[in-house]
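Task card 7
Instruction: Convert sequence to structure tokens.
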Amino acid sequence: MIADTSEVEYDLTNRFFTRRKASDGSVITSEVLSVRIGQRYFFDPTFGGALVPGMRNVFFPLNTFTAFAFEDQLRRFSPVITRIRYTPAERYAMDFRMDYDQNVHKLRASSIQGALIEQKGLSP
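Output:
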């Protein structure tokens, strides 16, 4: 479902880079850590009448900001999202996600995920 709304998204992202040796011996620059903190402001808290108070609402544009359903009441501000990606080595990554709802002063959702990144041309 698509809602009729106008919004503005703002966030702060900080990225940290390091130099690493590639498998062929050359030196490459790669991202080791990224931190993003963001939020959305909705000009119409009813989303053009699409929002049903007291029920978890999942519709566009809400599902493009976070995978967790948070819209169950009229509001102008989304929860504050935090996204952290740590890549300690070229083939490994860890993601941390957290949504803090300042309206109810509690953590709405969080997750941690690890990944082995496939590299083309390499066999295990």
